[in-house]
Design a protein that fits this description.
about 0% strand, about 70% helix, elongated, membrane, mainly alpha
Length: about 160
């Protein structure tokens, strides 16, 4: 069976790529999501939980910006230029994975006070929660397409050729 570039990235150089490209961003995002539930329920925005939430949000946004830039320059641009994509599922998996930059950087910008600064703390947390939800959607769509045979959506038999 063929593998998407997304899954290949996670499978090679074990365990480092899995840790760097999946575990770190997901653990930071899940820390934000879990602490977010507590904060929205209690509205205790002066608690140590908010400090953890803010630190994980900023770290996640900054970290994933580095991942995004690295993968764009070392994978996406070269694959696009050479016609090396393995099929539509391949492009969708990588595209949705990289789309995580929007919510993760957005969370960091909210936490740094650069976005939604005209809102009160609860209003900023509402924006924050929406961005967390968006990250969960794009990350799961990336995982679903990433686990597919990349040729599946082409109508070609497995073992098909690159997408030109």
């Amino acid at each position: 069976m063929n593998m998407t570039h997304y899954m290949e990235l996670l499978a090679v150089n074990q365990p480092w790529n899995l840790l760097l490209f999946m575990a770190v961003p997901v653990i930071l995002a899940e820390t934000v999501a879990i602490t977010e539930l507590y904060l929205l329920y209690t509205r205790n925005y002066a608690s140590p939980v908010r400090t953890v939430n803010r630190a994980a949000g900023i770290a996640g946004g900054v970290y994933f910006t580095g991942v995004f830039l690295y993968l764009m320059t070392t994978a996406v641009i070269p694959l696009t230029g050479s016609g090396g994509w393995r099929g539509p599922a391949d492009v969708l998996a990588v595209g949705f994975y990289l789309a995580g930059i929007v919510p993760l950087l957005g969370i960091a910008l909210v936490d740094l006070g650069l976005v939604a600064k005209d809102r009160d703390e609860h209003g900023r947390m509402a924006v924050h929660a929406g961005l967390v939800a968006l990250f969960l959607v794009v990350a799961h769509v990336a995982m679903i397409f990433g686990m597919m045979d990349p040729t599946l959506l082409t109508g070609a038999a497995a073992g098909g050729h690159g997408m030109h």
